[in-house]
Design a protein that fits this description.
Blueprint (H helix, E strand, L loop, with lengths): L6 H4 L14 E10 L2 E11 L15 H8 L7 E6 L2 E2 L5 H7 L3 E2 L11 H7 L9 H6 L2 H10 L9 H8 L8 E2 L2
Parallel strand pairs: 5-6
Antiparallel strand pairs: 1-2, 1-3, 3-4
Helix pairs in contact: 4-7
Length: about 180
């Protein structure tokens, strides 16, 4: 039987600062209103290290609204959202991404002319630290960093299946919306 590896073992540069105890994500009493419509009323949950957590429900239950709050697309009127002890509700969506949370959509758009690996690499832009000129030349640091980031092997399934399952563009604690 093959043992499962942690994301930090698979992807170099992943967070190693996840606490052994306590929540990675802590959502407390989140309220979101649009005029007189209450999209979220007192939503609370936490996600612990190494826990797989799902948000399910019928259409109109607020699943997209909570994910939009988690990624700072929406700002809740009340409540708190903490990731690794850091309050997220006042950050921009880019700030939330830099903190380590990414929003993934169920219906992903792929570039059909690119390989699975190249489609996956597109989402790693927050993790790659070199300029446009270096990327165009693909020499030195740009070459080394991209090769390091290309840790996902090619498989025999269709590109959508592989990308849905692999998603290395995600930070260590990605929130997948399925």
């Amino acid at each position: 039987m093959r043992s499962l590896k942690t994301l930090a073992e698979i992807l170099p540069g992943c967070r190693s600062d996840v606490p052994a105890a306590g929540p990675v994500l802590d959502v407390r009493d989140v309220h979101l209103r649009f005029g007189g419509v209450r999209a979220l009323r007192g939503v609370s949950f936490d996600v612990r290290p190494d826990e797989l957590f799902a948000i399910i429900g019928p259409n109109g239950a607020g699943k997209s609204s909570i994910f939009n709050c988690l990624s700072s697309v929406y700002r809740p009127q009340e409540g708190s959202i903490e990731f690794l002890g850091r309050e997220l509700t006042r950050l921009t969506p880019a700030g939330v991404a830099r903190a380590g949370i990414a929003r993934m959509f169920q219906n992903i758009a792929l570039f059909d002319t690119l390989t699975v690996l190249d489609n996956l690499m597109l989402g790693r832009h927050l993790r790659i630290r070199y300029g446009t000129f270096a990327a165009l030349l693909w020499r030195g640091r740009a070459h080394r960093v991209e090769l390091r980031e290309r840790v996902v092997g090619r498989g025999g399934a269709g590109p959508h299946d592989l990308v849905q399952g692999a998603r290395p563009d995600a930070p260590p604690h990605a929130l997948h919306t399925h």
